[in-house]
Amino acid sequence: MEFATWNVNSLKVRLPQVLDWLQNNPVDVLCLQELKLDQEFFPQQALEDAGYHCAWYGQKTYNGVAILTRQPLKPEAVQSGIPEHEDPQRRVIAATVGDLRVICAYFVNGEALDSAKYPYKLAWLAALHGYLQQQLAQYDGRVVLLGDFNIAPDDLDVHDPLAWKDKVLCSEPERAWFRRMIDLGFSDSFRLFHPQAPEYSWWDYRAAMFRRNLGMRIDHILLGSGLLSRATDCRIDKTPRGWERPSDHAPVVLTLD
């Protein structure tokens, strides 16, 4: 099975790119972030025509997440949002696929350490942590967490660690929450196969950052301990980032035996 995550930065704009990518990369599960679409405007028919069942949690202009699967989804096994955590921003959706739980998340950016959005990010991470702990217990470690984490967990994941030191996406409190997720029993699937590779999944649109490969690795797939032995590969597909009018993120793809 192949699982992928991709922040598409507007599904309305990039639906043709998603369909093209799926035609050449027919993954079993694709998690999308930043749909920027209200619930009723999700392109369900186009994706079903491409062979995918869909669960989505849309929001106009900002946020929004979706899970696309080859297998039919049971509506009762789909959960939107973090339970018991009130949040007007639609950032999390989960679904059961076969014998495992798939969680798609668009993490809070935080904007800057002195912004009001930064403590909101830390509070959101705390709520997510509790939810992940519960899901790991419920599904006996058979959980895959995919998404745009808006966290570069290590200096190796940043093109210029000194320039980003103590800034949002790289601050110690954010990285500490990433480590806490790992401590729950998750593994960073990309690092399982590329422990020292300075590869990135996001490049700013400005200053030819992609052409110069000045990026950050902030899109991740975390694998629960119950699935670790089934992992065979994880890669970042940079190809779509070079397309015309691309998302600023590239897909990350995990293969399970």
Mean pLDDT: 98
List the helices and strands in order: EHEHEEEEEHEHHEHEEE
CATH topology grouping: Deoxyribonuclease I, Chain A
Q: Give the strand content.
A: 15-25%
CATH superfamily: Endonuclease/exonuclease/phosphatase
Number of strands: 12
* Rough outline: globular
Major sheet? 6 strands, mixed
Report how far apart the termini are. 6 Å
| Biggest sheet: strand arrangement | 3-4-2-1-12-11
Q: Mind telling me the C-alpha Rg?
A: 17 Å
Structural class by secondary-structure content: alpha+beta
Describe the structure.
It is built from six helices and twelve strands. Strand 1 (2-7), helix 1 and strand 2 form a beta-alpha-beta unit. It is of the alpha+beta class. The termini are close together. It has a six-stranded mixed beta sheet. The relative contact order is 0.16. It has a single domain, classed as Deoxyribonuclease I, Chain A, CATH 3.60.10.10.
Q: Which features characterize this protein?
A:
257 residues, alpha+beta, Deoxyribonuclease I, Chain A, 6-stranded mixed sheet, 6 helices, 12 strands, 25% helix, 23% strand
Outline of the structure:
This protein is 25% helix and 23% strand. With 257 residues, it is of the alpha+beta class.
Provide the fold topology.
Layout: E1 2-7, H1 11-24, E2 29-33, H2 44-49, E3 53-57, E4 65-69, E5 79-80, E6 92-97, E7 100-106, H3 117-138, E8 143-148, H4 161-164, H5 172-183, E9 187-188, H6 189-193, E10 219-223, E11 231-236, E12 252-256
Parallel strand pairs: 1-2, 7-8
Antiparallel strand pairs: 1-12, 2-4, 3-4, 5-6, 6-7, 8-10, 9-10, 11-12
Helix pairs in contact: 3-5
